[in-house]
Amino acid sequence: MEDIFQYADDLGPEKVIEIYDPSVSLKAILVVDNVAAGPSIGGLRMATDVSKEECFRLARAMTLKNAMAGLPHGGGKSVLFGDPAMPAVDKERLVRAFAYAVKDVADYITGPDMGTNEALMACVKDVNGRSVGLPREIGGIPLDEIGATGYGLNVALQVAQEFSELRLDGSAIVVQGFGSVGQHAARYLATQGARLVGVSDSHGARVAPSGFDVEALLAHKQAGGNIADYAAGKTIEAADLIAVECDVWIPAARPDVITEHNAPRMNTRVVAQGANIPASAAAERILAERGILVIPDFVANAGGVICAAVEYHQGSETQAMATIEEKIRSNVSAILSRAARTGATPRAVALEIAGERVRRAMEYRHTH
Ligand code: NAD
Questions:
Q1: How far is the CA of 179 from the centre of ligand 1 (A)?
Q2: Suppose 2 and one of 52, 129, 157, 288 were both cysteines; which one would form an S-S bond, judging by CB atoms 3.0 to 4.6 Å apart?
Q3: Digits of tens for pLDDT over the chain (368 positions)?
Q4: Chain centre distance of CA 1
Q5: Where does the chain hold its CATH 3.40.50.10860 domain(s)?
Q6: pTM for this structure?
Q7: Separation CA 34–CA 13 (nearest Å)
Q8: 134 CA → ligand 1 middle, Å
Q9: Which atom from ligand 1 is nearest to the alpha carbon of 302?
Q10: How much helix, strand and coil, in percent to the nearest 5, is found in the chain?
Q11: Maximum Cα–Cα distance across the chain
């Protein structure tokens, strides 16, 4: 049994709930990390290999992300053990049972994450009244459909041009994980003149030095195809995607994919972290020493939660996109300029700013 207290510090976690419902074989974990700024928002992830540690680390990333974005929300996260490819009817049954189990945890608002989607958030709303990332028909702003996070990554990289030698026009990009985040990031970056030269999903990886036709690749994925069976480009070992020469490398799949073992192989100018917690601290130290600019996860991929918060507070899609642009532009600019001035890494600067905001919010609250 993993001991959650080994991760506890001055920010949290506030509560960790293990959920078991034998009637539907539901096994899930909810971590509410910190609610000083307001009720926590964080995604519900479904996968077979999730863990309590991963759930806590993702909840902490949400605390920092929401604070960095100046949202009136704390951080939480939930994980549900199960194969995301299970039949839709079984998945809905599990998610409804999860929503029922957390119905009294008033300071947790469920959002979509890997393995869950807008339709499932509608089920959560139906059961306990608290979810974001809803379908349009019930007043939602479908953040994955409009590509809120991919849009934010694109804004972050536009700002990075001012602080590095990166020029998006004519640049080569690699995307690991061609789901909601990866697809939209590739689509938005293509509008800036970037070429997608390497891409992967859970079935395999491919490269095309002259660039894939992003619209055709999107159509292939939407028709149910995989990267491995796509006609253009050539197949490579998934583990070799890390070393593909490019200007921007975007992790947009699982945690802990950039490690101290493979970071020396990276051949990029910039890593823009679409996925949450994709790199270890040791890996980021190696990248910093090698002069590779890392735009940290809780800054670069905040587009989704900013969109979710705008939806929760009854804003429109236009307001959501404008808010993503404004917040990510000003945060990335502030972090990269302070990092350039002080020589600290962008993550160290961002941690300092977000941590300070959370601690200040905690001082405003005296519940006991
Ligand atoms: P998704 O389920 O839509 O897509 C995930 C993609 O990753 C799929 O294409 C899947 O095949 C692929 N994948 C899974 N395992 C892989 C592996 N080992 N190697 C290569 N590809 C693999 O999920 P998503 O919503 O795009 O989220 C991706 C990541 O971004 C997650 O870490 C998530 O927490 C993070 N994130 C998502 C959002 C959002 O708005 N959706 C916001 C912030 C952060």
A1: 5
A2: 52
A3: 567 788 899 999 999 999 999 999 999 999 999 999 999 999 999 999 999 999 999 999 999 999 999 999 999 999 999 999 999 999 999 999 999 999 999 999 999 999 999 999 999 999 999 999 999 999 999 998 999 999 999 999 999 999 999 999 999 999 999 999 999 999 999 999 999 999 999 999 999 999 999 999 999 999 999 999 999 999 999 999 999 999 999 999 999 999 999 999 999 999 999 999 999 999 999 999 999 999 999 999 999 999 999 999 999 999 999 999 999 999 999 999 999 999 999 999 999 999 999 999 999 987 65
A4: 27
A5: 4-59+74-139
A6: 0.95
A7: 6
A8: 18
A9: 43
A10: 45, 20, 35
A11: 62
- Structure token digits, residue 363: 């001082």
Say which CATH topology domain 148-303+330-353 has. Answer: Rossmann fold (3.40.50)
Within 6 A (CB) of ligand 1 lie 113-114, 143-144, 148-149, 176-182, 200-202, 238, 252-254, 274-276, 301, 304
What residue has token string 């539907």? 24
> Across-strand partners of 41?
75, 109
Sequence ranges of the chain with CATH classification 3.40.50.720: 148-303+330-353
Locate 149 and state its tokens: 């996070």
Distance (Å, whole) CA 31 – CA 89: 26
How far is CA 236 from each of CA 120, 198, 205, 240, rounded to the nearest angstrom?
34, 9, 6, 7
Q: How far is the CA of 178 from the centre of ligand 1 (A)?
A: 7
Long-range contacts of 339-345 (CB under 8 A, 24+ apart): 340/163, 345/284, 345/288, 345/294
CATH numeric code, 4-59+74-139: 3.40.50.10860
The residue assigned the tokens 């689509």 is 187
Backbone angles phi, psi at 256, to 5 degrees: 55, 40
Q: Is 77 part of the annotated catalytic residue set? A: yes
Catalytic residue of the set 27, 65, 77, 221: 77
At position 275, the amino acid (one-letter code) is A
Q: Is omega for the bond preceding 13 within 30 degrees of 0, making it cis?
A: yes
